[in-house]
Design brief:
single chain; 489 residues; alpha+beta; Rossmann fold; 11 helices; 28% strand
């Protein structure tokens, strides 16, 4: 054999050996990385890829677990319940190679998702420069899914990396997510991991899993469409499941406590169809993150465009807000009301800059419902029931808290009680279904509504319009009442 031929043969053999050693290496998804936060008090999946049949050992916090990669090269172990730990520790994964992840904390993990109001960066929030400068908090860890990508089929390998929250890393992260996490750290005194996956201008359908659509009979047509996708089906940012497949599925089944969600503007013309889609979204995510009790808190759409002046209302986002409220029938969910947070001087800005109160109100729900702080009222008043007495309608509410009040919210200042103030944006109608503006007064934990123009009232509406700018019913905890109507006309 010629020397050149022998050299070529040996080179090929070496290349094949090198390639084989590469395929045998244990590999982890990006969401499992140094600097991450692992969820406390739940089983914690650790997963990845290796050579078929390869033995893989995971060690962390005194636990050592071993498994073998399947025929498809996939492997997974589940760490037993962990205790919160704010001191960084090492997690190792060992097969034919060894991976060491450093500075791993244990605490609370939340995914922050939705369209542009969730994507809106900390730098762009009210007092953004000051907020970024003050964001040095090593107990908060950030993982931002980069780019805007889609896929017709669920993808397993995503992109991104964990970063310690600091002025160098926080400026482009979700402002709502950051303020939510900041309050959790302050109240719980444990590390918080925030995973940002969001895309401005998107509808709810692209974020929803196939299984989620299949769980809601009313959405069978969408489920069939997604089920028919092939690997070469062309999808875009509006295609059902396409964003989930690329920007959320690679994160699964990372253990987490819950999700916060700010989306709906792009579905703003919908009513009960959005209610069904919200069920599908939550059902699907709970399945893929392997947590049937995954907490899920969303933001009701904020006030937008010119103030509503028609007592009948029903325009713009009135009905999707109603659908968002009705979806509270899903267990372990909550809704932050935001109809008082847009800039009154710029009502046509669809991106209210006050993300501090949005994040804080989402955290209020989580602290009360998920973390058991029952001394906190989770939200503002939510309509419960009504009674017609003589020519008046008496309204009862859940979440009255310390009592009802006429309130005024100004920028980032705490809501102020308006002593002697008048409740506004209540309307009333009789059997003729003609709506007029009403007089409304607080009577203990109820609101009494009437009008001299309506002798026999049958229904009330409150803030039921695109921009209920004058709506001012709050509880004394400073959180606004959600818009509602007692009729279904």
């Amino acid at each position: 054999m010629k020397v050149s031929a022998l050299f070529n043969c040996l080179s090929t053999l070496a290349l094949l050996t090198f390639s084989a050693s590469l395929t045998a290496d244990v590999k982890l998804p990006p969401v499992l990385g140094s600097g991450m936060v692992l969820q406390r008090e739940l089983q914690v999946p650790v997963w990845g890829w290796a050579e078929k049949g390869e033995e893989v050992t995971v060690s962390f916090a005194g636990q050592t677990k071993t498994t073998k990669a399947g025929d498809d090269g996939k492997w997974m172990i589940k760490l037993d319940s962990l205790k919160a730990n704010s001191k960084g520790a090492k997690l190792t994964v060992e097969g034919s190679n060894k991976i060491s992840l450093d500075d791993v904390l244990v605490g609370e993990v939340w995914i922050c998702s939705g369209q542009s109001n969730m994507e809106w960066p900390l730098q762009g929030s009210t007092n953004g420069n000051e907020e970024v400068a003050a964001s040095d908090n090593p107990l908060i860890r950030l993982f931002d899914v980069p780019g805007h990508t889609t896929s017709p089929k669920p993808q397993e390998e995503g992109k991104g990396n964990w970063q310690v929250c600091s002025p160098k890393t926080s400026s482009g992260f979700s402002a709502v997510g950051y303020f939510f996490g900041r309050r959790l750290v302050k109240e719980l005194n444990v590390p918080v991991g925030l995973i940002g996956s969001n895309w401005g201008g998107t509808r709810i359908e692209p974020w929803t899993t196939l299984a989620g659509f299949e769980s809601v009979p009313e959405l069978a047509d969408i489920a069939k469409k997604v089920k028919d996708y092939k690997v070469d089906t062309k999808v875009g940012g509006g295609s059902p499941s396409a964003i989930y497949n690329s920007m959320v599925h690679p994160l699964t089944p990372f253990a987490m406590r819950g999700g916060i969600w700010y989306q709906g503007e792009s579905n703003g013309g919908e009513h009960m169809s959005y209610y069904h889609k919200k069920h599908a979204l939550v059902n699907g995510w709970r399945k893929v993150f392997q947590n049937k009790d995954l907490a899920f808190y969303w933001v009701q759409l904020a006030n937008f465009q010119n103030p509503g002046t028609n007592p009948a209302g029903g325009d713009g986002w009135a009905k999707i807000r109603e659908a968002q409220t009705k979806a509270l029938d899903i267990p372990h969910t909550g809704m932050a009301v935001a109809i008082d947070l847009a800039d009154a001087h710029n009502p046509r800005d669809i991106h209210p800059r006050n993300k501090q109160d949005v994040g804080g109100r989402l955290a209020q729900w989580a602290l009360h419902q998920t973390y058991g702080k029952k001394d906190l009222v989770p939200t503002g008043p939510l309509y419960k029931s009504h009674k017609v007495k003589d020519n008046m309608i008496h309204l009862s509410f859940d979440h009255v808290g310390k009592g009802l009040m006429v309130g005024k919210k100004t920028k980032l200042e705490p809501t102020a009680e308006v002593k002697g103030g008048k409740l506004e944006h209540f309307s009333i109608a009789g059997e003729d279904k003609k709506w007029v503006w009403a007089d409304a007064t607080i009577n203990g934990d109820t609101v009494v509504v009437s009008s001299k123009e309506v002798k026999k009232p049958v229904a009330v509406r409150y803030g039921f319009t695109m921009n209920p700018a004058n709506a001012n019913l709050y509880n004394k905890d400073g959180i606004p009442a959600s818009p509602f109507r007692t009729d279904d006309w």
